[in-house]
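Ligand-bound model needed. manganese (II) ion.
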Amino acid sequence: MALEKYRQKRDFKKTTEPKPKATSSTSKGKLIFVVQEHHASRLHYDFRLEMNDVLVSWAIPKGPSEDPAVKRLAVMTEDHPMDYANFEGVIPEGLYGAGTVEIWDTGTYEMIEEAKGKYVFNLSGKKLKGAYCLIQLKSADSKNWLFFKKKE
Ligand code: MN
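Prediction:
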C-alpha cells in the first residue's frame, strides 16, 4: 500500500493532516501538483505530483527556482494522499513535521517524459509555469533528486 509510510508517521488523533481514505477516488481530467511551504524545524518546500492516485512527494530545502541554471536538491519523501493537496494548517509540536504548512503554489501538470529516475513535466501553476525536471542522483543516496527548470 503506497500510503503505509504516510500512515505510520502520523497520529491522526493529534494531527489535522488528512487521513488516507480506504478507497481512493481516481480523479478525472488533469493531473494536479502542489507546492507547500512548510515551516518545520527547517523551512522547506514540499513539491507533490499526482501519480496513480497519490501525491508523489519531494522536500526541496531551498524551494523551486525559475532560473534554469539553478538546480535545487529535492529529497524524496513518502507518498501523500490526494487530500493533502488542500491541506494548510499547523502540525502540533512533538509530531512528525511539526510546524505551519501553507500552499505556496498549485495547479495542473502534464508529464512530458517519464523514465526511471527522471520526470519532465509542464507545470501550469499560479507561480510555476513551463517545463521542469526531476532527476534522481544515482551516485548518491537514491532519495536525492535535482529539481530545475528546463532550458527553453
Ligand atoms: Mn514537509
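Residues 38, 40, 44, 46, 59, 97 surround manganese (II) ion (CB under 6 Å).
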